[in-house]
Amino acid sequence: MLALWRSTIGKKAVMAVTGLAMLLFLIAHMLGNLKIFFGREEFDEYAHWLRTVGTPVLHNAWFLWISRALLVVCVVLHIVSAYQLSRRDLSARPKGYAHRLRPTASYATNTMRFGGIILALFIIYHLLDLTALVANPNGVEGAVYDNVVADFQHWYIALAYIVAMLALCLHIAHGFWSAARTLGAVSSATRARVYKAVAGTLALIISVGFLATPIGVMSGLVD
Ligand code: HEM
Fold it and tell me: In this structure, which of 39, 71, 150, 169 has its CB flanked by the most CB atoms within 10 Å?
């Protein structure tokens, strides 16, 4: 197990599997967010339900805490393996030549690195904003609908979310395709085209689904 984690392919597999697990969370989160278009009562009821899922088999909020723990494990493993792979990539580059063979990282690699950093910063801000409520203009526990609406009534908060969603779109589009390759799903040119198309479509659906909320508030559709 340790040998697999130390190998390059092992780290890539960890990135692929944790990335796909986070993708499932994002699909569920995006669909849940769309309930905001059905009004305050339905949205807040849904947020309350999230804290009681699994009862009475599980104690109150246990499901939420188990999901949070799994997400933290995925985020940490994803970031650590990405960092270690990028260190390896750097040290494998030829040094000492006037013209290096690969003087700069490729467009996709840069997009993933900068996009990943933007997303990590966004997640910290997002948790302070809508979970811990310390960065929210309304910040009332249980008033999830009002907290979200209060956010997007400020153009600079809406802009921060929109930029993060664009970074998310690029990250999913390239990340899903990369994961499919790592996990051996891309065995022919036709399959490559199919997986690229699936990756792009998924990225677009998830980002547009998330963007609907700030745009809904800014346009007055959600108030
Ligand atoms: C416009 C886009 C988004 C909106 C409006 C939004 C909204 C929310 C809201 C309202 C909550 C609090 C839910 C509650 O307390 O019941 C929440 C929690 C959370 N969101 Fe988002 N979200 C968005 C995008 C994202 C993205 C892109 C990610 C990940 C990259 C993300 C990750 C999380 C996480 C990890 C939590 C904490 C869940 C928990 O532990 O309670 N969100 N979001």
Answer: 169
Pocket flag, ligand 1, residue 116 (CB < 6 Å): no
Torsion of CA 160, 24, 182, 168, to 10 degrees: -10
Pick the CATH number of 2-91+108-218 from 1.10.10.10, 1.20.1300.10, 3.40.50.1820, 3.10.290.10: 1.20.1300.10
Q: Give 33 Cα–ligand 1 centroid separation in angstroms.
A: 8
Measured in Å, residue 123 CA sits from the centre of ligand 1 at: 8
Q: Could you state, in order of their start, the residue ranges of all structural domains in the chain? A: 2-91+108-218
Whether the full predicted model's pTM is greater than 0.90, yes or no, is yes
Out of 25, 31, 33, give the residue to mutate to test ligand 1, the one with the largest number of ligand atoms within 8 Å of its CB. 33
pLDDT tens-digit readout, 197-209? 999 999 999 999 9
Measured from the CB, is residue 126 less than 6 Å from ligand 1? yes
Tokens 């690229």 — which residue?
196
